[in-house]
Amino acid sequence: MRLEVTSMRWAGVLFLGLLIAAPASAQRASGELTRAIEQLQSADEAEVRAAIETLGVLGNARAASPIAERIRRGLPPELLEAAIDALTVLGRPESGPVLFELTTHRRPAIRLRAVQAIAATRPRGADRALAQALADSDSSVRAAAATALGEIGATGALDALFHALDRRVPEAAVAIGRLARPNEVERFLGYLGQLPFTLVMPALTEMLQRNALAERSRLAIVHRLTELATPEVRAFLEQLVPSLPDSAVRRAAEDAIPRIGQ
């Protein structure tokens, strides 16, 4: 009994300590946030870097706007990259406007980071900004934009993705595979035989493994592949079939394999 009373007393002390410590901890974090925001205005690069890193680590939503303002005032390349990374970590949609501006920056590395940050923060208008980035002069930016559109589910950008596929952006095919609805599947099938099979194969994998895509559309893909009947198609189906659940689509793919010559 005495042991139980002692344990309860220590539990009460611990709980009281936590109640006292929580406001103190919050106050310290608030003070760090205020100091870091003030430090952003420094002319010393080391201090600005330290401020950016602190704001990223603190993860407070209030940090996004001050970092965006500091970016607009101008930062050297290394600090600009750090600032974008901090906005990415914060993941706040209000970072969108400044990130959209950075997708037209003169340096490809900055444009790439901006595209990746947009994908992470998903601000309003992200689909439009990423669709525009599909036409970037740098291949890594185009690839990141296509990947991001697929990740955020930007079905409104499908037409832009098809145009990117026309320009041989491989990642556009993957995004189309993730996003395509029945009409887009039919449109995509028109590319079979026109583009290298290695370019369209990732999209076909995405489509055939998407249970949410209408079964008739997936069966149409298998039928078109059977018509194409190349050794590449046979190897593709052989590799894909084990990953498909038991369904009419899987059975159609299994039936197609022996009908395609090696």
Notable traits:
262 residues; mainly alpha; elongated; disordered N terminus
Give an overview of the whole structure.
Helix content is 73%, strand content 0%. By secondary structure, it is mainly alpha-helical. It has a domain at 180-262. α3 (64-73) runs antiparallel to α4 (77-90) and α5 packs antiparallel against α6 (108-121). The N and C termini lie far apart (81 Å). The model is unreliable at 1-10, 12-16 and 18-22 (pLDDT under 50).
The averaged pLDDT comes out at 88
Terminal CA distance reads: 81 Å
* Count of DSSP-assigned helices: 15
Strand content: under 5%
Number of strands: 0
Instruction: Output the helix-strand order.
Output: HHHHHHHHHHHHHHH
**Structure class:** mainly alpha
Give the % helix.
over 70%
Radius of gyration: 26 Å
**Low-confidence segments:** 1-10, 12-16, 18-22
Q: What is the 3D form?
A: elongated
Tell me the major beta sheet.
Answer: none
